[in-house]
Amino acid sequence: MELKNWNLAEKYARIATSMYSTNSFLWDTYSQVFKNQLQDKIVTENSLDKGGFDESDIHEVISLSKKCIQRFRKEQKASENESSTDGENNFAGYFGELRAIVLLLSGLKQFQASRKVDILHKYLIEENFKHPAFDFLTDEESDFIRSLGKFSQEAMRRLDEEYLQMKETASSESSTQSFENGNRSLLILKVNIDSYFGEANKNPSRSLSEKDKSIYRYHTARYLGATSLNNLLQMKQNGEHKKLKQIYRLLHENVSMDNSSFDNLLALMDTVTVMLLDQVIQVDLKYEQILEWCKQLRSLVKTKSVDRIYLEPYLYYVLFNFPTEERSSHKLCLPLDLSSTLDLWHDAFQKSIPSMGRSKQLQEK
Fold first, then answer.
1. Residue 338: CB atoms within 10 Å
2. Name one GO cellular component term (predicted).
């Protein structure tokens, strides 16, 4: 790859992964072939300063990005099934996918016909937004670009889950340093990605449809920090209570109008959980409403069709329905429902991180 003989590098990487299809390190090498090509093209464009990418350049950038992300996802699946790899190695595929997305976005930003930032921004987050600058894209390319927000959100949430767990289990100086370095890298990627998908204005335009207003509020909440439970916890620790209340207001308005959106409801429950910790941040909310949201979220996760598995719906259902003396006046779920949810949570965890389950089995033997 150092010689930039991309065709030869791709050929050997393809042969290697076909022979050892479950080796995550080989899939990472294959992914890097396309990522380095993508990076080289963008860096070269910046150095030449020839006025930005044209349509043919954008076709190539999108093609390289798709191939790159596909291989990083192969790496993700392979690493999760390798009990021999350590946690840090398991994250490489997710970091790789996020970096590929950032590279693609920076390439789109250099497109001659969409140099005005608001055009690209609207195209990325508004489902029905059309602009002549992007008419040359195929339907497949357009769908891929409009899915980048979802792709990045899913990858970041997975990394946040892993780093939150690492933080709890870090015992040595080296593991603590590993957590801090990885978490810092993730935060930098978040800033990069949110600069494309976030909203500067926190109030949607009156001219937008109710659906578009809801989308606007959701992206604004994400821009403010509602990307994961881990990120919201860090905001609370940093004393960003005002911002947490803004996030709560935006998501609460969305869910109050329509509680069938999994993404809005999950982000709201993340926020509510953080705000209720230690009762530091006051929120005008009845406990019965939280129980109803937990029930709805657990129901919605069954219909959620994504590449990754969500653990939070089961966590919140158990957390808020667990019987305590001070909750005796509330209508909690039946013990049987609580038990079945714990089983679902355990099964989801095993599917999400299969290597953890195998490691535990080996220890028990």
1. 15
2. cytoplasm
